[in-house]
Amino acid sequence: MSTLEWPADPSDAQVAAVLALADAATDTDGMAPFSEATTLGLRRLPQHGAAAGLRLATIGHAELVGAAVLADDGSAEAAVRPDARGRGLGRRLIDALLQERPDAQLWAHGDLPAAQALARAYDLQVSRNLWRMQRAVDAEPAIRPRAAGAPDAPVVPAGFAARSFVPDQDAQAWLDLNATAFAHHPEQGRMTMDDLQDRIAQPWFDPEGLLLIEDTAVSPHRLVASHWTKVAEPDSGEGEVYVVAVDPAYQGRGLGRAVTGLGLAYLASRGLQTIDLYVEGDNGPAVATYTRLGFERTSIDVMYSRAVHPMLTP
To answer: Which of 75, 90, 119, 140 is the most exposed place for a label (fewest CB within 10 A)?
Structure first.
């Protein structure tokens, strides 16, 4: 029987094996078992140890057949290598996670049937829904590429100005806006400078695709809204509404609509076919806004936990 371990100081080789396992699971399931934040955290783990905010559990001797990641906030993810499934490894990983953190909240990306079955076996309840929504670029004229000055181009309200992100200049201001806009969000609002720099260092990062709106009526100008777009694989034809943030003190001035439109127009200008986004399923106003923009739900990530967390409903 393969041994389950919690390596105190995971090596580069162990982390590489976990990431390879995740790639194999993604190829089989069509859904990544670990989030982007977890994947980036794993890559930091050998150098940063506990400071990376993650703990790793592994199953396997000569070859890794299962792995789980437990974050400091109690969120957790697990994966079993496709050719090793059906041996009870998923249960062993969940047992280990719940022993370490009885209040752990377990992500099921795509909420696949196997994950639903495990949730039922452990009497876990849904505590959170994260929707993936998608639309075709040409489904709505408002996000087609436009000539400069076209009447239907996104309009920035008077007293504000739009520009692109400058990494050496805007990083801290963007983090401050992000923390304010997502003060109550369980992950996004806790993004650190290291988290931001990790993303800036990724091959897909494009500062032109991180659109900012500033209040130009104050000096110095104040960053009040942003739309970070993402094109992870240009050849895929897919782009993403990565993060949209508006300073709560400036809500109700049309900035959310303006910055969303700017980002969507930028993605359309890249020649993409579809645009994706993720939104909390219980965020009714956001879901309604994106639905009006032509987005439809294509999949759902579900967080399961014991009956110790409030139930969130879509």
So the answer is: 140
User: CB atoms < 10 A from the CB of 249, how many?
Assistant: 11
Note whether 70 and 190 are same-domain residues. Answer: no
**Phi/psi of residue 49, nearest 5 degrees:** 55, -135
Residue range 2-31, pLDDT digits in tens: 799 999 999 999 999 999 999 999 999 999
Query: Would the CA dihedral through 292, 295, 297, 303 be positive or negative?
Result: negative
- Which positions make up the binding site? 36, 78-80, 187, 230, 240, 244-246, 251-257, 278
Distances (CA, A) of 211 to 220, 275, 300: 18, 16, 27
Could you tell me if 214 and 226 are in contact, meaning their C-beta atoms sit under 8 angstroms apart? no
Q: Please tell me the predicted confidence (pLDDT) of residue 138.
A: 79
**Number of separate domains in the chain:** 2
- Judge whether 83 and 64 are in contact, CB under 8 Å: no
Give the number of other Cβ atoms within 10 Å of residue 127's Cβ.
18
Residues 70 and 95: beta-carbon distance below 8 Å: no
Residue of 208, 244, 198 whose CA lies nearest to 224? 244
136 and 285 share a domain?
yes
Tell which residue, 122, 107, 96, has the closest CA to residue 3. 96
Per-residue pLDDT of 188-197, as tens digits, reads: 878 899 999 9
In Å, how far from its chain's centre is CA 313? 19
Phi, psi for residue 154 in degrees, rounded to 5? -55, 135
Residue, of 143 and 12, whose pLDDT is higher: 12
Domain boundary among 123, 158, 186: 123
Domain assignment of residue 313, yes or no: no
Task: Quickly list H helices, the chain.
Answer: 12-29, 36-48, 89-100, 113-121, 167-181, 193-200, 255-269, 284-292
Q: For residue range 278-306, what is the model confidence (pLDDT) as tens digits?
A: 999 998 988 998 998 899 999 999 999 99
Q: Please report, in range form, the residues annotated as the binding site for acetyl-CoA.
A: 78-80, 244-246, 251-257
